[in-house]
Amino acid sequence: MTTQELVAQIRTKKSFLVVGLDTDLEKIPSHLLKEEDPIFAFNKAIIDATHDLCVGYKPNIAFYEAYGITGWKSLEKTINYLNEHYPEQFTIADAKRGDIGNTSTRYAKAFFESLNFDSVTIAPYMGRDSVEPFLAFEDKHTIVLALTSNQGAFDFQTQLIDGSELYKKVLETSKTYTNSDRLMYVVGATKAEYLTDIRAIIPDAFLLVPGVGAQGGSLEEVCTYGMTKDVGLLVNSSRGIIYKSQDEDFAEASRDAAKAMQQAMQRILEDRS
Ligand SMILES: O=C(O)c1cc(=O)[nH]c(=O)n1[C@@H]1O[C@H](COP(=O)(O)O)[C@@H](O)[C@H]1O
C-alpha cells in the first residue's frame, strides 16, 4: 500500500485507528475455545465488527509465536482474511525484528512476501545494514522503534550520546538510509511531550503510536504535538478494544470501543480543518 492510499483511507473514514490483534487464548471468550481455530475465529469476528472504523490492524507476532505452528497458522489465516476481504486495511506485523543484512532480508521476505503484510516493526539497534534490507521492498513500510511507550525506554533511548538523545540519533541517522521515504516510526503515546522535538527532525513521516488506553497515553496530547497536514499518525489500541467483553457480545463490545476512538479522532480532525 502506498502512503497516499493510507492517507486517502484516513480522510474517508475520519479515523487513524489501528486495532491491535494481541490475541491471547486466556483472554478471549471461553465459548470460542471449542472452535477449530479459536484465535482466527476471534480475530475474524473483531475484524468484521470494526473494519469500517479503523484504517489498520496490527497483530503482535509474539501472541501467535507463543502457540508454535498452530499460532503461526492462525496468523497466516488472519492476514489472508484481511488481504482478501478488506484490502484497504494497512496491515502491520508487529515483530520488532532486525539483524545482520542477509538475515534481515529473510525477515523481510517472511513478512512482506510470504505473509504479504504492508509493514513490519523493526528494532534499529543493529544499524543501517539491518534496516535497509526491509526498505528495499516497494510499497512496503518499515516502522522503526524511536521512542517506545514503556518505562525501559529511559534505559537507553533518552540517554545522551555526544549531547543528543539516542532516539534523536535514530531519527536523524535513519533519514540517511536508502529508501528512507519508506520509513515510519514508533513513538509511544505515553511520550507525547517528546513529539515536538521528534517532529522537528521528521516533520512528515507517519508515526505508529501505541500506548493509549491500557498504558495511559492521551489521544488529544498525541494529536496536539504529533499531527501533520496528512495526519501522520496511526494510533494503536489493542486490549482497550479487543477485550471489552468475555461474552457472546464481545465483537459488538469491541465495535463500541473502536467507535468511541473513531469519534474522538473525527472530532479532532474536524477541529483542525
Ligand atoms: O511496536 C509496538 O507496537 C509497540 C511499541 C511500544 O513502544 N509500545 C507498545 O505497547 N507496542 C505494542 O503495542 C501494543 C499495545 O497494546 P495495548 O497496551 O494493549 O494497547 C502491544 O502489541 C505492544 O507490543
UniProtKB/TrEMBL annotation:
Keywords: Decarboxylase, Lyase, Pyrimidine biosynthesis. InterPro entries: Aldolase_TIM, OMPdecase_type-2, OMPdeCOase_dom, RibuloseP-bd_barrel. Residues 16-254 form the Orotidine 5'-phosphate decarboxylase domain. It comes from the Bacteria. The keyword Lyase applies. It catalyses: orotidine 5'-phosphate + H(+) = UMP + CO2. Its EC number is 4.1.1.23. Pfam families: OMPdecase. One of its GO terms (molecular function) is orotidine-5'-phosphate decarboxylase activity. It is an enzyme of class 4 (lyase). Pathway: Pyrimidine metabolism; UMP biosynthesis via de novo pathway; UMP from orotate: step 2/2. Belongs to the OMP decarboxylase family. Type 2 subfamily. This is Orotidine-5'-phosphate decarboxylase. The lineage of its organism: Bacteria, Pseudomonadati, Bacteroidota, Flavobacteriia, Flavobacteriales. The gene is pyrF.
